[in-house]
Amino acid sequence: MAAELVLLSPLDGWAAPLAEVPDPVFAQEMLGDGVAVDPTGSVLHAPCDGVVMSVHAARHAVSLRAEGGVELLMHVGLDTVTLGGAGFDVHVAEGQAVRAGERLISFDLAVLADRAKSLITPMIVTDAAGRTIAARTTGAAVKVGDRLLTLSAPLGAVEASVAVGPELTRAIVVPLANGLHARPAARVAELAKRFQAEVSLMALNRRANARSPVGIMSLGLRHGDAATLVATGPDAAAALEALAELIEGGMGEGAPVRKPVAAAPVAESTPAKRAGLARLKGVMASPGLAVGKAVRLFVEELAVVEAGQGAAHERAALDAAVAAVAGRIARQAESGEDQARRAILGAHAAFLDDPELTGHAARLIGEGKSAGFAWRSAIGAYVEALRGLGDRRIAERVDDLLDLERRVLLVLAGEEDRGPDLPPGAILLAEELLPSQLMGLDAGRLAGICTAKGGPTSHVAILAASMGVPAVVAAGAGVAVINEGTSMILDADAGLLHVAPDAKALATAQTTLALRAERRAAARLASREDCRMADGTRIKVYANLGSVADAEAAEAAGAEGCGLLRTEFLFLERERAPDEDEQAERYGAIAAAMGGRPLIIRLLDVGGDKTASYLPIGPEENPALGVRGVRVLMRRPQVLKTQLRAILRGAPHAKIMVPMVASLSELRAVRAALDEARREMGRVGRSDLGVMIETPAAAAIADMLAAEADFLSVGTNDLTQYALAMDRGNPDLAGEIDALHPAVLRMIAQASEGGRKHALWTGVCGGLAGDLAAAPILIGLGVSELSMPSAAIPEAKALIRTLSPQACADLARKALDQPSAEAVRALSNTFLTGEA
Fold first, then answer.
1. How far apart are CA 680 and CA 685, in angstroms?
2. What tens digit of pLDDT does each residue of 28-43 get?
3. Residue 344 is inside which H or E element, if any?
4. Which of 459, 531, 562, 808 is catalytic?
5. Which of 65, 193, 380, 393 is most exposed, with minimal Cβ within 10 Å?
6. Contact in structure between 13 and 37 (CB atoms under 8 Å)
């Protein structure tokens, strides 16, 4: 029998359980089980004989591989990566063999005590190699060399003694599309443990204990690989049959096995192995990065009976339930200061008060149906109508109706919609998430959200962003097969959910989180200063706005002005067109909130994915290429004139911007209408009028537009979808549509050059402006103004202050010659990390 592995204390100090470490990655054992030492000594020693696997660049952490393949991580202090190596001295190198007690790292206790979050030092068994922790010392003082952890003998060595009888074999072919990765390996191991037989899996001249998920994964079996099951023991035949049936059945991930051909790409909507990680690809709904564990929220549909118990009884029950839900909504709205939450609750209250909705339900009750059946049917009719409009933004309001359906049905059933009890650092998984479900969760414990369905402009997406919770939607059916408690990394910025990442990936993500937090804190302190490059070149950093609340947030974030006021967002969800007085009051309030800073107001941009009931547009086969933006205003000159007059009254200093321009005649028509409005109002002088470059046509004739415009501003969201012929709201294309595509960058370069010919400045106000990887490239292309979400402003300013014009220009030239958006991002990330 193989011997136990004893791990000695690497430090003088006080031994504590991992649960007491004030960091969820260690406390929740995301990297593995182990123990921690709160040090009184200042030298980290090897806890056993082994080989140094790695020493972190910041010198605060070291990994060892011990006897039998056991891997250990020792992490001195918490958030010590931010020290950049200050206070640490390393005495070993990667690949070096060490003996127990040998010095690994020395550190300055005074420096760490002053600058680190905590001195406590976890020692983690990141790979137990089939062993378990048999004993540990906690709650006691320890010295270097004291016994701290004892790992049992390997499982295979223990069980070999009970495996008797002939050796049986069974050949199999792996049909799982992504091979035997973490989840299927765990299922194989779980099944193997039900048998007395000793079962192994053999492939490529290697052998793994079938009860060890790590061992199974280490074989690296992929789709179509051949392997052999080997079993010895009293129930060997049954074990082989059961395990072969499980693996060959595909475990829900099966795919036809063919003769070897060139590998086809795996659909991004299912888990796919990439660099040692299983991942799901979705669409960002709220930016950010999170590390945590899976908490599932998959609710069953509420059952309702069709037949009622009398019209009077059912109508009274429905009225009471609707009133109860309305009361709860009102109380929630009154108790919250979050403007987004209050606006969404207001929309829900309006839906509940809709006479058509309640009238439809009343008619069904009159026909003998139950209150629940009538309510569900009435909601269902609206849902089908909205989904049939072919408008993505309106269709996403379906979630709000389904939310109200569920809330009323729960009251009728006398039930409460209790969400899961979230542990700290929870990443919530759901097929779809309703607004009330999200609002009912403990935001302090919610690290992130990933849903199989949903849209990036839904109310859940808006709520998540307002809560500062990273969220990915439309990640596909793979979300439903993730086990509760699985460790995960949610990279919402990239639209990715990494499932069961290895210890190295978790440690890297945690380091990234710590660095981001430090960077954000420093950036916020300097956010109100004007933005200048390292040589003093001025780059204006503005905010994109859609409300007075947005303006207040922008001012607090250090915005130097507003580069895009989306006026349609002020008046979208209403039946009546806003009159001149109402518009003037709104524009004036936003101008006041911005404190006299520059303000660029975009004229109404409806059509396509943004509809307004007071500006009806007939059915279109392709709304994105139909009547939208300036085309709507040309067909409704009175709407244009009213808005121009309102802007001149409410924000006379504002610049005005024309959306979706494709020809010089459109700019001239708006200029004529603006000049006429000024004359009618007795205004002297001239208002600045700019053009949004968001069609390939506008980019191509930018020099002609610049001859008559006062500024140009690139709207990268629409420009990207038109340049790449990809609907930016299509989840299936989410991983491919990227504004850093060289074709889009060349159009931005063309627009900037067109502006320079006439001494005009060019800005970017689309989503790309807030992308840190894009900032140096855009500046290098000649962009001098970036307008972005308020939350991105502090970090964008901090980055720009480190850049030089020449370096940005050199980077931009290289970016234009890259073969893909991925290559551009890699180039920019290399530039930003100083690796170039």
1. 13
2. 776 678 999 999 999 9
3. helix 339-352
4. 459
5. 193
6. yes
